[in-house]
Write a structure and sequence with these properties.
By secondary structure, the chain is α+β, with helices and mostly antiparallel strands. It has 3 helices and 6 strands, in the order ααββαββββ. The protein has a 6-stranded antiparallel β-sheet.
Length: about 150
């Protein structure tokens, strides 16, 4: 990307997401789908399989966390600055079950200096609130796309 022909913020977010998706083996392996991306925002979905259930016959919380973490990653990496998680927390509100389609929607709350805060809501196919995730990001050296 040259300074003579800069991408719009939306085009930049989409290009960053495409570059990340190509290398994101974990999200792809779990069957996640990247539904939307914009500057500071991302939406991903994932169907819960039997392999994702625990001894309570509900979705293991780690898979819910992983879906939210992936949405967080795409949202905070939408500015072509490599960004990683510094701290994350999740609050589980209701169980998810085999066959559920979960959707995680990330939105930027704050982005200042090298740090950012992102909230991610996870819902099921009925619109029921499954979990809330908050991620704190930290930029590191490098870009996703050539400068």
């Amino acid at each position: 990307m040259s300074t003579a022909d800069p991408l719009s913020p939306q085009a930049l977010a989409e290009a960053c997401a495409s570059a990340m998706w190509d290398e994101d083996n974990a999200s792809r392996h779990l069957g996640m789908e990247l539904l939307a991306v914009a500057p500071g925002k991302a939406t991903l979905s994932m169907a819960i399989t039997e392999a994702m259930t625990n001894g309570h016959r509900t979705c293991h919380g780690g898979y819910i966390f992983t879906l939210a973490d992936s949405a967080f990653a795409f949202a905070c990496n939408s500015y072509n600055q490599r960004t990683v998680a510094q701290h994350c927390s999740v609050t589980y509100i209701a169980p998810a079950f085999k066959g559920d389609l979960l959707t995680a929607t990330a939105r930027e709350v704050s982005r200042r200096g090298r740090g950012g805060i992102y909230d991610i809501a996870i819902i099921n196919q009925e619109g029921e609130h499954i979990a809330e995730f908050r991620g704190h990001s930290r930029t590191v050296k490098g870009t996703l796309l050539p400068e």
